[in-house]
Design a protein that fits this description.
- The complex is a heterodimer of chains A (260) and B (275).
- With 260 residues, chain A is mainly α.
- Chain A has one domain (2-256).
- Chain A has 9 helices and no strands.
- Chain A has helices at 2-36, 40-51, 55-79, 86-124, 127-133, 138-176, 181-191, 194-221, 227-257.
- In chain A, helix 1 (2-36) crosses helix 6 (138-176) and helix 4 (86-124) runs parallel beside helix 8 (194-221).
- The radius of gyration of chain A is 21 Å and the shape is elongated.
- Chain B is α/β, with parallel strands linked by helices and 275 residues long.
- Helix content of chain B is 36%, strand content 23%.
- A 6-stranded mixed beta sheet of chain B has the order 6-7-8-3-9-10, with helices on both faces.
- The chains are: A mainly alpha (260), B alpha/beta (275).
- Bound molecules: adenosine-5'-triphosphate (ATP) and magnesium ion.
């Protein structure tokens, strides 16, 4: 029994010190962003590898998710003779929930894991210490541009996901199942609110981008500098990002859509 | 051992340094001095903490006790910014090379120049080619680090370490993995840099012959202590059996090849107990 509490205490302590390190790391990263701004090239390179290279997976996933929503939505709505509202259903679920959440999960798997592995390996091969000895702060030079790129890419990718998903829903709904094309779009236009739906969705994805990039970069930076250490850190990035995204999504949804 | 009074000519001075990794005491109250414009070598068995000492001097690790001053500044008391200013004047050659793997050889050597100076690309180009020429790798300038052999990577790292024309260079095992010819060239290069640019060099090396050839002063460390120090001639004549064995590389003698451990027999007989 005693041992149990001892172990519990020890692991709580390590989690708290890790949280402390992560917070300190975040503050350094944020202050490093100021020195990225005058060097757009650094940011561009990262926007490319973090954002542009995620285009394909986001587009394809968005298309399929939209198509499935079209199918499922049609079956349910047609029971009530409300298949004209398919557009609202597809758009609302995408813009409010699936766009930000699924994009963030895919982003953590595609770009987050890559970031962790890259930073972890740079640490393991002494590239980060090497930079420090050349009087170049690795946080400013390496971490901050990547963080900023993740933060910027996420809302753009989520919007892309939702937009493609809406088209996917339309392809299935109007193309395959015979919903009226005009109704699909006009009902969507009437019912989807710019602030309540779109802006809230974008806010979600901004928060997810912040958290996922933070987790991915910190896990890499804090990794034990061996192959096993890096592989574990990569796993932790995906798992911790998924938990944080889903947990935060619940909280944010409760706050944003709770009272109406 | 009388190295407590540091003269004006000392660039780096290590005073009463104590440092441990866990329960493993790596340095136990040692003091060393490195003179300006000289080549000082640090020798000692593998795992005694030579790399650790260089990292302490570079301010990447913190001592438990004692001080390290470089050019009159206490490395571990400096603010971040001052430490970075100091590091710009220190070149360090890592044992592993530590090249940036996403850039080719040329960009690796250009990296510190691009980060710290406002030179034009054409000036950077001449500087980089000059440094690469010095280490004999000008022709390899567009290779990626994964296309280099270990010895070549170390030479590129050396070109990068001298890119900013520092006042001092810390070399961690510059000769390992070099064939006799490039070894000879590197020995001459280190010597030449030292003489023409007035650099201060600290070399960590196991290559006793090569190092003794160019070093002005040698420290032999083991088990957290300075075992002996002096000019190469003095070290060669050392009365210490230990140093004699180390310099000659004999298998028998007071030096232990093994990492400290319990009795071999006990270890073999303690069956069933897993590490
Ligand atoms: N990150 C670390 N964590 C714990 N112990 C370490 C760490 N790095 C080094 N050590 C220990 O510190 C001691 C000194 O290591 P160091 O790398 O300085 O040796 P070295 O003298 O450079 O050896 P070599 O000549 O083989 O390069 C070793 O006994 C090693 O076990
Ligand atoms: Mg070493």
């Amino acid at each position: 029994m005693m041992q149990f509490f001892q172990r519990l205490g020890a692991s709580t302590r390590t989690s708290f010190t890790k949280l402390g390190r992560a917070t300190y790391f975040l503050l350094q990263t944020l202050s490093g962003i100021l020195s990225v701004l005058p060097r757009p090239r650094l940011l561009m390179n990262q926007l490319f590898s973090v954002g542009v290279l995620s285009f394909l997976i986001i587009t394809i996933s968005g298309l399929f998710v939209g198509m499935v929503l079209g199918l499922q939505g049609f079956y349910i709505l047609s029971d009530f003779g409300a298949e004209e509202s398919l557009g609202i259903m597809v758009a609302a679920s995408l813009v409010r929930e699936l766009g930000p959440v699924v994009t963030a999960l895919l982003f953590a798997g595609r770009a987050g894991s890559a970031l962790t592995a890259e930073i972890g390996l740079m640490k393991a091969t002494e590239q980060l210490s090497g930079m420090e000895m050349m009087a170049i702060d690795p946080i400013r030079r390496i971490i901050s541009p990547r963080f900023l790129a993740g933060f910027i890419s996420m809302p753009l990718l989520a919007s892309l996901f939702s937009a493609i998903g809406i088209i996917g829903g339309q392809l299935v709904g109007t193309g395959l199942l015979g919903v009226d094309d005009g109704a699909y779009w006009s009902q969507m236009q009437n019912q989807i609110d710019f602030y309540d739906d779109i802006i809230n969705g974008v806010i979600k994805s901004i928060i997810f981008g912040f958290v996922t990039s933070w987790i991915a970069l910190f896990e890499g930076y804090d990794a034990i500098p061996t192959s096993e250490g890096v592989s574990r850190a990569t796993t932790r990035t995906v798992v911790n990002s998924a938990f944080s995204i889903l947990g935060l999504d619940f909280i944010l949804t409760a706050l944003m859509f709770g009272d109406d | 051992m009388d190295n407590s009074n540091s003269s004006q000519n000392t660039l780096v001075s290590v005073r009463n340094l104590t440092f441990s990794r866990g329960n493993n005491k790596i340095f136990d109250d040692i003091s060393l001095d490195f003179e300006r414009g000289k080549i000082t070598a640090i020798m000692g068995p593998s795992g005694t903490g030579k790399t650790t000492l260089l990292k302490l001097i570079g301010g990447q690790l913190y001592p438990e006790q004692g001080t390290i001053t470089v050019d009159g500044q206490n490395v571990h008391r400096l603010r971040r910014k001052e430490l970075y200013e100091l590091r710009k004047r220190m070149g360090m050659l890592f044992q592993s090379g530590a090249l940036l793997t996403d850039m080719n050889v040329y960009d690796n050597v250009a990296f510190p120049l691009r980060e710290h100076t406002h030179l034009t690309e054409s000036m950077i180009r001449s500087l980089v080619l000059m440094k690469l020429q010095a280490v004999g790798l000008r022709g390899a300038h567009q290779l990626m680090p994964n296309e280099l052999s270990g010895g070549m990577a170390r030479r590129v790292a050396m070109a990068r370490a001298i890119a900013l024309d520092p006042m001092m260079i810390l070399y961690d095992e510059p000769f390992t993995g070099q064939d006799p010819i490039s070894m000879g060239v590197l020995v001459l290069l280190i010597k030449a840099l030292n003489e023409t640019l007035g650099l201060t060099s600290i070399i960590v090396s196991h290559d006793v012959q090569e190092t003794a050839q160019i070093a002005d002063y040698i420290y032999v460390i083991s088990n957290g202590k300075v075992v002996d120090h002096g000019t190469p001639a003095q070290i060669e004549q050392s009365s210490s059996e230990w140093v004699q064995q180390f310099m000659k590389g004999a298998a028998d003698g007071p030096v232990h090849f093994h990492y400290p451990a319990k009795e071999y027999v006990d270890d073999l007989l303690s069956t069933g107990k897993r590490y």
